Amino acid sequence: MPTTILAKRRLIPGKTSELVLDAPHIAAKAQPGNFLILRVNDHGERIPLTIADADPEKGTVTIVYLVLGKSTALLETLEAGDAILDVCGPLGAPTHIEKTGVVICVGGGTGIAAMHHIAKGHARAGNHVVAVIGARTKELLLFHDELSAFCHEVLVTTDDGSMGRKGLVTETLRDRLAADPTVSEVVAVGPVPMMRAVAETTRPFGVKTTVSLNSIMVDGIGMCGACRVTVGGQIRFACVDGPEFDGHQVDFGELCARLGAFRDQERVSLEKFHECRCHDHKKA
Amino acid sequence: MTTKKPKPSPRTPMPEQPAAVRRANFSEVTLGYDLSMAMTEAARCLQCKKPACIKGCPVEVNIRDFVGHMAKGDVDAAYAAIKATNSLPAVCGRVCPQEIQCEGACILGKKGEPVAIGRLERFVADEFAARSACEQITGQAACAASRDGLSVACIGSGPSSLTVAGYLAARGIKVTVYEALHELGGVLTYGIPEFRLPKAIVAREIAALTDSGVTFVTNWVGGKTFTIPELFEMGHKAVFIGVGAGLPRFLNIPGESLIGVFSANEYLTRVNLGRAYAFPDYDTPIYPGKKVVVLGGGNVAMDAARTALRLGAEEVRLVYRRSKEEMPARAEELHHALEEGVILECLCGPLAFVGDERGYLTGLEVQHMCLGEPDESGRCRPCAIEGDTAHIPCDLAVVAVGTGPNPVLLNATPGLEKNRRGYVVVNEDTGETSISNVFAGGDIVTGSATVILAMGAGRRAAKVIAERLVGHG
Predict the structure, then answer these.
(1) How far apart are CA A45 and CA B283, in angstroms?
(2) B252 and A CB contact within 8 Å
(3) Which of B106, B129, B152 lies at the terminal end of a domain, its last residue?
(4) How far is residue A211's CA from residue A106's CA, in Å, rounded to a whole number?
(5) Which residues of chain A have a pLDDT value below 50?
(6) Which spans of this chain does the record mark as coiled coil (chain A) (predicted)?
(7) A88 touches B at CB < 8 Å
(8) Are A3-91 and A102-259 in the same CATH fold?
(9) pLDDT over threshold 70, residue B136
């Protein structure tokens, strides 16, 4: 049954939006760290998106996406009141959350939205949650207000210094770790190079580091093996064994290469989509 | 002078697309009999007093009767005879390994060629397709009246669950089938290619079930969206687990994560479920391969190899550790694959995938093998010929060496007994699991097997469920 979009918020116009979906059966089960798989229409592909928030009372789940290829570009054409053909979830193993003390949640780009649900879980569990978030510039910084509502500290970095500290999230993270030996865990969600850098930053401190991997998926239920990643020398499936893994054990180089496997086809698909849209505009 | 019995007449050939044409399209390879071909073929049947063919069929179709009716051209009576025990004849007629089941037991096969039972079954099912759903499923013009409050849940929508649903619906029991993917049919849809089993055929069987009152729910994942105890809370009186064995096996050799190495499940799911053969009209991409190797020798390996050809590969090699004789694939699929130009590299064991500095696959290192003594499976054990290795250049490799049990639902179900290999343990007489009123059947019990065996298991469980819920099977 199609899933209705209840609300759409354009976070970065044309680039990133937040959708609130009417999906009570998913909202009832969604835990921090879970994702869902959706297919926009009957010619669409199955794409995984992290659940950024869930409200079991209202029966809603929130997703945030970055417009990257054809499927997310198509998703971006939908408005509140429109429906998504298939939404399946919640998928993946939930984040392991227990009361351990101080937890630093690092987020970059659209990953901040995904990190938000995890940070919320840690705050609920009674941990002291430090959010470290970064973007190129102030306008691209997501979920600052949402995180401020429950995080004990929100540390902001921007590449251009337009908000918070000028620099990279890893610099802020390093300083925070150096100043505070009580940090029990670092969680990072964002682009692969960022997660890799976070893992390298925390390694000398010996702090447990969890990363949420965005590998290519098809079914999302452990059936196809597309999402396989090497963790500690073992093949693991991001869809059912993850998506969260020990950042110190992940083979990021392999993940990065595998993410590019369909780059040529993705380009073809996106170009065709833009051509079609262009054509539509001419007709209109 | 002794009078020799005449040699039986040869089988009526099945019209099919020429190999050179079909290797470039996804349309069905075999085209089916017409009425006169079906009658000619059925007339070859000896109508044995003790028909061995029926014993060879896991769902015990009354083959003698149905072929007998067909010989007279009575399609209706033939259909009723099949449908009495088989709820998916159009599927079985296409994908069953008949040569080791019904046809393998046919007396005619001792001297010549057995009756083409599978082709006849397909003809009868296709001829009958236009009939109303209830008639298709139950043989009755009207469906059994639905019995209040009796509902059963099936998890997974593959052949075993569809069989359970058909059997129970015919007895007035409400069935809801929960499917994790967005399309129904399980392996019939994501696994078996269009050229072997058109999706329209699967859709037709499912539509017939829908018309007879079965409810289908897609995008609901057992163990994630719902648990088995929750199904009972929702009012279901019994649960059937038919989730198949979908966890892909890999070879665990170096280079398996290179770009261009795929599991057969991923490769086939992209093409069949995602319609990647129609990319970019459909959004699911497929990795293009010019020189393709497929590892394995079963039906799935054949499907992957023939799919690669149709997607434009210049060369497709099937790498298999044993010899052609040991290949587990259906004889007809191997035959079709060879006709289409698939090259066999038998007695070849994979050693390592080799790639370039960017992480792309460039070749496969293989070890040549010879056959030794039979192992516990009864097949000759492949033994390495020391030092005899080779390099096969390739840019796409599909690993089709089997699957294991998917743990998602099983791990989310406390109290469900599993065996050493992770499959569900059931009572062999009833199909019931270690949890009362929870049944299981198909690949999640047996490991990868055939559609018809899954249907046999579904039928057995459905009989017991019906006996418990309404007092008779």
Answers:
(1) 5
(2) yes
(3) B129
(4) 10
(5) 283-284
(6) none
(7) yes
(8) no
(9) no
Q: DSSP per residue over A249-269, as a string?
A: TB-HHHHHHHHTTTHHHHHHH
Residue B25 forms contact with A (CB below 8 Å): no
CA B444/CA B160 separation, integer angstroms: 10
0.90 surpassed by pTM: yes
The two three-digit tokens of residue A175, written as one number: 């300083």
B357 touches chain A (CB under 8 A): no
Q: Flag whether B197 is in a domain.
A: yes
Provide the domain count of chain B.
Answer: 3
B359 close to A (CB below 8 A):
yes
Inter-chain touch B219–A45, beta carbons under 8 Å: no
What Rg do the C-alpha atoms of chain B give, in angstroms? 23
CB contact (8 A) between residue A265 and residue B220: no
Indicate yes or no: CB of A223 within 8 angstroms of CB of B275: no
- pLDDT score of A225: 93
- Over range B316-344, report the average pLDDT: 94
User: Which residues partner with A228 through β-bridges?
Assistant: A237
State whether B84 and B210 are in the same domain.
Answer: no
Q: What is the CATH number of the domain that holds B66?
A: 1.10.1060.10
Distance spanning both ends of chain B, measured CA to CA: 56
Helix residue ranges per DSSP H, A141-262:
144-148, 169-179, 192-202, 252-259
Its CATH class, for the domain covering A102-259, is alpha beta
- As given in the structure block, the two tokens for residue B449 are 């097997």
CA–CA dist B454, A209 (Å, integer): 44
Residues of B in contact with A225 (CB under 8 A): 248, 250, 262-263, 265-266
Domain identity same for B171 and B238: yes
A251 → chain B, closest CA residue: B257
Amino acid at B214: V
Strand pairing report for B151-155 and A244-246: unpaired
Residues B337, B258 share a domain: yes
CATH 2.40.30.10 fits A3-91, yes or no: yes
Q: Are A223 and B269 in contact (CB < 8 Å)?
A: yes
Q: Strand, helix or coil at B51?
A: coil
Q: Do B230 and B255 sit in the same domain of this protein? A: no
CB atoms B280 and A254 under 8 Å: no
Q: How far apart are CA B445 and CA B198, in angstroms?
A: 27
Residue A88, annotated as binding a ligand = no
The amino acid sitting at B414 is P
The answer to whether B118 and B93 are in contact (CB under 8 A) is yes
- CB nearest B257 (choices: A90, A230, A268): A230
Question: Angle formed by the axes of helices A252-259 and A192-202, to 10°?
Answer: 180
Amino acid in the structure at residue B64: R
Task: Decide if B285 touches A, using CB distance below 8 A.
Answer: yes
Q: Which one of B199, B220, B224 would you mutate to disrupt binding with A, by most A Cβ within 10 Å of its Cβ?
A: B224
Structural domain that includes position B67: 30-129
The CATH number of the domain holding residue B211 is 3.50.50.60
Clarify whether residues B53 and B72 are in a common domain.
Answer: yes
Detail the DSSP E strand segments found in B185-342: 215-217, 238-241, 247-248, 261-263, 291-295, 315-319
Say what the pLDDT of residue B4 is: 62
Give the best residue of B219, B225, B362, B443 to mutate against chain A (max A CB count within 10 A): B219
Chain A residues with CB under 8 Å of B256 CB are: 235
Give percent of chain B with pLDDT exceeding 70: 95
Sequence spans of domains, chain A: 3-91, 102-259
* Per-residue confidence band for B137, with pLDDT thresholds at 50, 70 and 90: low
Q: How many CA atoms lie within 13 A of A76 on its CB side?
A: 20
- Determine contact, residues A172/A195, Cβ cutoff 8 Å: no
CB contacts, 8 Å: B283 with chain A: 43-45, 70-71, 74, 269
Residue B53 lies in a domain: yes
Q: Is B264 on the interface with A (CB under 8 A)?
A: no
